[in-house]
């Protein structure tokens, strides 16, 4: 089995959660900036600026998390596939984390379509 650094492995396993956390910060940062600067009435492409920016951030986060999920699903390395193989656990954990993050990202982005930014 190949040796990799703990930090790289752990960061890879947590990458979906990091994507979700960045999206969460972006959503609240965008709303905070729009409300602080009083840009609530500004439109971009015919829609409120908050909706456009949050939907863009949500789309990017969904694509990144889907990429992590795809890498976890199709990144199976050849070789032994026993329960003692830590790569199997790493792929399983990363895939489940990515699936959960996809749901969380959608859940965070949904209010942008339903509620005004400063309402």
TrEMBL record:
<keyword id="KW-0472">Membrane</keyword>
<keyword id="KW-0614">Plasmid</keyword>
<feature type="transmembrane region" description="Helical">
    <location>
        <begin position="50"/>
        <end position="77"/>
    </location>
</feature>
<keyword id="KW-0812">Transmembrane</keyword>
<feature type="transmembrane region" description="Helical">
    <location>
        <begin position="89"/>
        <end position="107"/>
    </location>
</feature>
<feature type="transmembrane region" description="Helical">
    <location>
        <begin position="12"/>
        <end position="30"/>
    </location>
</feature>
<keyword id="KW-1133">Transmembrane helix</keyword>
<protein>
    <submittedName>
        <fullName>Uncharacterized protein</fullName>
    </submittedName>
</protein>
